[in-house]
Amino acid sequence: MSVENFFSKEEKKQITDAIAEAEKNTSGEIRLHMEGHCAIDVLDRAAYVFGKLKMHETAERNGVLFYLAVHDHKFAILGDAGINQVVPVNFWDEIKVTMLALFKQGKFADGLSQGILMAGEQLKANFPFRKEDVNELSDEISFDKNL
């Protein structure tokens, strides 16, 4: 199965709607990137993808990447310097635990959506939306062939 077809059209909409909802009240930016395989350390790969997607170029350095290697059953959450300075030390781990519980039930879209909304709450608390804010990064899911 190709990575692009891992989620149904409805599940993709659920995830992109969660991204839009999470970003509605913040200047923060959230992306989901999916690949089939991750042959290296998942955080190293997520950091590479973070750079390729130019997520470090947001004005307040408050981008968050959700990275998923579908066939290898690996995932990572990576926040930029701005958000990492203000969230609790174990914050990303709490989101991962929540997501993993749903992933183990086969509820991958639900897990991602819940994790994205949790990240959005922290972004909203620390980087509230201002009227001059613009959506700096696409809300669409990116795939390995797009890099």
What helical percentage do the residues reach? 40-55%
Strand order of the largest sheet: 3-2-1-4
User: Could you name the CATH topology?
Assistant: Diaminopimelate Epimerase, Chain A, domain 1
What is the total tally of β strands? 4
Show unreliable segments: none
At the first level of CATH, the class is Alpha Beta
| Number of contiguous helices | 5
Largest sheet: 4 strands, mixed
Mean pLDDT reading: 89
CATH architecture, by name, is Roll
Distance between the termini: 20 Å
Count the domains: 1
Evaluate the radius of gyration. Answer: 14 Å
Given the helix and strand composition, which structural class is it?
Answer: alpha/beta
* Assembly state (oligomeric): single chain
Instruction: Specify the overall morphology.
Output: globular
Secondary-structure element order, N to C: HEHEEHHHE
Strand content: 5-15%
